[in-house]
């Protein structure tokens, strides 16, 4: 019996020596940003207040309510100063359903995230940046005075010095000891500085990162957007199918009939080299037109089969099974008419499964089981081939899984080496009366 040997290497955790540097950079840039916001905000609020008299300041005041949006985007990115490996916090804002500045403005005014970002902007300008600056100053001011004791003593001369007015330092041994004490104090004070920076970042994330309800709304919007894309894709497929069926196919049918009539007329020409060449040319053209017509019909059937639209999923599955090179046994009760996207997804799942069986499985037979029970369509396609199918090697099953995900469906492929391979599709849906 084969055995598997696993070798593991234990890595001892290493202290994050860069954490103090990151914390200092985060707090220092926060103080600089907050001071800038305070100055610019003061100018804009004052200017808009003065211009309200001539009504120009009203739009400016309205625009100021959205000033937190760009600042919040910058703050979410600035969180990476503490943890560069993390991706930036996602935006809590949704995408407007209709284009235009007015739609964007209306949506932003209705979102809670906009007002949280405005509140954060006010806090940053009035409270947070002074706190950041104070913490950094407290962590460095006293240690810096103690560390600089030897330099101060050299400047002061024999009179001695009192670092931070704490004690008298009148010699270089005492100054050196004071500098070492300053280094120790700096290392000690870095710990609360790092803790404050972490708490500051957590507060920023709490206000500016999306809440669970906003994430749910964003996910719902993405799902609706994907559904709209699939609907548009299906509508375009049907349009192409109609254009090919009513346009190119009819022209090819007419061309084939004209070539057939020309062959009949050419049969009445007296025998001779010219007549034979003409008959051969017409026969070749007739065969090419027939082949092109057959390929076009297959293409139309692959885009959106007419049998699916006219007679439903039952007839479409039977049609797909009849065209398979591997014998297919179908086992199901009569399926009801289902929503068009569901029928289309179920049909193309069967088509993809039968195509893979024909090309790769080496199977002698296949079986399709389909049923609509408990508010869901379930289709199983099983073959007795060699198995070992890998859905990741091709794009057909991947695209099919994406298509089913829009319908809240699920695609499962079970294919152990040696077989059997089973492709299962489950789509929640209700029957329709047509």
TrEMBL record:
Keywords: ATP-binding, Kinase, Membrane, Nucleotide-binding, Phosphoprotein, Transferase, Transmembrane, Transmembrane helix, Two-component regulatory system. Its EC number is 2.7.13.3. The chain crosses the membrane at residues 24-44, 50-74, 118-151, 171-198. One of its GO terms (molecular function) is protein dimerization activity. GO terms for cellular component: membrane. Signal peptide: none annotated. InterPro entries: HATPase_C_sf, HATPase_dom, Put_sensor_dom, Sensor_HK_TwoCompSys, Sig_transdc_His_kin_sub3_dim/P. Residues 349-429 form the Histidine kinase/HSP90-like ATPase domain. It catalyses: ATP + protein L-histidine = ADP + protein N-phospho-L-histidine. Residues 26-208 form the Putative sensor domain. Residues 236-308 form the Signal transduction histidine kinase subgroup 3 dimerisation and phosphoacceptor domain. Gene3D superfamilies: 1.20.5.1930, Histidine kinase-like ATPase, C-terminal domain (3.30.565.10). This is histidine kinase. The lineage of its organism: Bacteria, Bacillati, Actinomycetota, Actinomycetes, Kitasatosporales.
